[in-house]
């Protein structure tokens, strides 16, 4: 109990002194800037992968508030129609812009771990680009798993003469794909984003908190917006953007707290 109390004291002190709620607001701004360049890149991949717009939207539909989801769907539809005009030369700039959010997370985690940025501007930015590409690959795998997972389940069912309950269990396991993918993404961010190199194991506590906290917060905020928060009445046509920014702000807070949790345990292990 005493250890838990000291942990909460440490966490609150860091959040208060370092103004991490203000930093989360900065993160939400960079997330907004990164969102649509990221969508452009995903749209450009559709011809090369067995994916559709519905697959991409289905991955995030449960987490994004409904008002903001309509905004994303509209823009993604427009981008899909203009896909033929997207040139390969523009993809480099698109990925560079999409990495703004990862670059902001890198700076935030450096602050959380109390380490200075020792990488050059170009190296740090290239790291952000590589992390963005890795995140896209992980997302693509998450989208492809349900497609191939169904065929794998049917193959095992026919070859091993399993009961019909196997297919039900196999289909239910697909619900675990999204949380697992989110957990892997957070581990990668907390492990590779800071300038100082830490062990992969040290990223697990914060990644676990961030995964559970982000999913629960997203569900709760989506429910609140859909049932009680009529942002369109207060902000008009930009209500969807305001909802998206608030959601990104809450996501930023979760990511920062996860980084602080890792920093706390890293410091504790260092002193032992």
From TrEMBL:
Residue spans crossing the bilayer: 20-49, 86-105, 126-149, 169-192, 204-225, 237-258
Superkingdom to which the source organism belongs: Bacteria
Localization: Cell membrane
Keyword Cell membrane belongs to the record: yes
InterPro entries recorded: Virul_fac_BrkB (IPR017039)
Key words of the record: Cell membrane, Membrane, Transmembrane, Transmembrane helix
Membrane topology: Multi-pass membrane protein
Assigned GO CC terms: plasma membrane
Mitochondrion listed as a keyword: no
Predominant place of localization: membrane
Protein name: Membrane protein
Source organism (scientific name): Bacillus benzoevorans
């Amino acid at each position: 109990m005493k250890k838990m109390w000291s942990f909460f004291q440490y966490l609150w002190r860091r959040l208060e002194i370092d103004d991490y709620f203000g930093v989360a607001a900065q993160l939400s701004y960079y997330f907004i800037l990164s969102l649509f360049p990221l969508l452009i890149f995903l749209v450009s991949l559709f011809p090369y992968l067995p994916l559709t717009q519905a697959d991409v939207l289905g991955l995030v539909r449960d987490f994004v508030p409904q008002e903001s989801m309509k905004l994303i769907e509209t823009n993604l539809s427009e981008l899909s129609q203009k896909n033929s005009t997207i040139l390969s030369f523009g993809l480099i700039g698109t990925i560079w812009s999409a990495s703004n959010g990862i670059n902001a997370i890198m700076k935030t985690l450096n602050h959380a771990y109390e380490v200075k940025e020792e990488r050059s501007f170009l190296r740090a930015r290239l790291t952000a680009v590589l992390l963005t590409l890795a995140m896209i690959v992980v997302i693509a795998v998450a989208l492809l798993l349900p497609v191939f997972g169904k065929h794998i389940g049917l193959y095992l069912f026919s070859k091993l003469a399993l009961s019909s309950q196997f297919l039900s269990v196999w289909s239910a396991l697909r619900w675990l794909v999204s949380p697992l993918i989110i957990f892997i993404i957070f581990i990668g961010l907390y492990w590779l984003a800071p300038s100082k190199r830490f062990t992969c194991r040290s990223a697990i506590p914060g990644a676990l908190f961030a995964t559970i906290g982000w999913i629960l917060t997203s569900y709760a905020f989506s429910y609140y917006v859909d049932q009680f928060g009529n942002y369109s009445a207060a902000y008009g046509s930009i209500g969807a953007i305001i909802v998206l920014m608030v959601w990104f702000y809450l996501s930023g807070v979760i990511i920062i707290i996860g980084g602080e949790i890792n920093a706390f345990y890293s410091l504790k292990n260092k002193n032992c």
